[in-house]
Please model this.
Amino acid sequence: KTSRSSIWLFSEDRTSLICVDLYDLPRRTHTSGATLEVADYPAYFAALDKEPILAARDARSDPRSREFKDGYLEPLGITSMLDASIRLGGKVAGVLCMEHTGEPRDWSLEEQNGVGSLADMVALAIEAQQRRRTQNELVAARDAAEAKRFWADRKRLGAIAARTNAFKLNEDVVLPLPALAEFARWIEREN
Model:
């Protein structure tokens, strides 16, 4: 168990990390929206780019996470951190964070591998969401293009009917307007 678990994703311009969801076990609450500016934590973000897992027993003194000491770790009572990068397309897109309060904690290899696997699952979920969004946009674009083509065809057929005093069923069949009633009766007899 950890005191706090959270998912953070980079902003579009990659200048900040935004909390998507943070679960605080002792308080049993979810929060979101907190922001960390990348420029304020260069060592942490450099380490995150190089290492898929950051296991910090003493997060307040670990060179990769000590930048968080005054503004984040100490005020929240966090002593140990286990972070795994969320990677999309080979680039870090965010981080899955496990934060421990109380005595510093040694993170087992099993815990590190588990958090890494969870971060991979988060990446898969994000990719699936992006794929669904793209597919929906393609369907909407295709439907819009088909509707536009349909109405352009109807307009063209209307222009032909006005010029020729006939009704065009398709590219091969054009009925003179006086024959339209007879055509309708023929269709009825055939069906």
Remarks:
- The chain has a mean pLDDT of 86.
